[in-house]
Design a protein that fits this description.
- With 171 residues, this protein is of the alpha/beta class.
- It contains two helices and 14 strands, in the order αβββββββββββαβββ.
- The strands form four sheets. Strands 3, 11, 12, 13 and 14 form a five-stranded mixed β-sheet that branches.
- A hairpin with a 4-residue loop joins strand 5 and strand 6.
């Protein structure tokens, strides 16, 4: 049943991608014309985006702007200017649930027909951006954050990442 839901989600994303290259998750429409991926950002939202958990760096040459939760040192990282940079202190990956599925593939690309980057979800567009899930004070309102969760904190107006132990905030 889980695989059917995953396949259905991917198919829906592909259909939406073929029409307008804009995707709304948890709501009916995308806010604005320059948004490629948008989430339900109501005041009661406490769900963020969960980054892939990798042991060390992904194989191959990552694209600048790639985000991971690195379980080798329990840090959230971004690949920027061809260098991995930590976005968090050392956290805790002990609550991660391993994915035991045998699914394979190149992931989903939104924004263009074929992406050049390799990832589970690739957003590529020359003129559109992703709007992160917006949560007010995630350190207070997200009751059980998952390691690698990211969101935009509307209270402090910062980018927030959870490293498995604490929230880290970036302006």
């Amino acid at each position: 049943m889980k695989h059917l839901k995953n396949i259905s989600t991917v198919l829906i994303l592909m259909v939406f991608n073929s029409f307008s290259a804009q995707v709304a998750i948890g709501k009916e429409t995308v806010d604005g014309n320059s948004t490629i991926l948008d989430f339900n950002n109501t005041a009661s939202n406490t769900k963020g985006l969960i980054l892939p958990a990798t042991e060390g760096f992904p194989a191959g040459s990552p694209a600048n702007g790639t985000f991971i939760f690195d379980t080798s040192d329990d840090k959230v990282k971004v690949y920027e200017n061809n260098v991995w940079k930590s976005l968090s202190d050392t956290g805790n990956s002990s609550t991660l649930t391993p994915n035991t599925s045998n699914e394979t593939g190149n992931g989903v690309v939104i924004g263009i027909q074929e992406g050049s980057a390799d990832g589970v979800l690739v957003l590529e567009s020359p003129d559109k951006a992703m709007v992160l899930p917006k949560i007010s004070a995630p350190h207070l309102n997200v009751k059980n954050p998952y390691p690698g969760m990211i969101c935009y904190d509307t209270a402090s107006k910062t980018f927030a990442v959870f490293d498995g132990t604490v929230w880290n905030y970036w302006k």
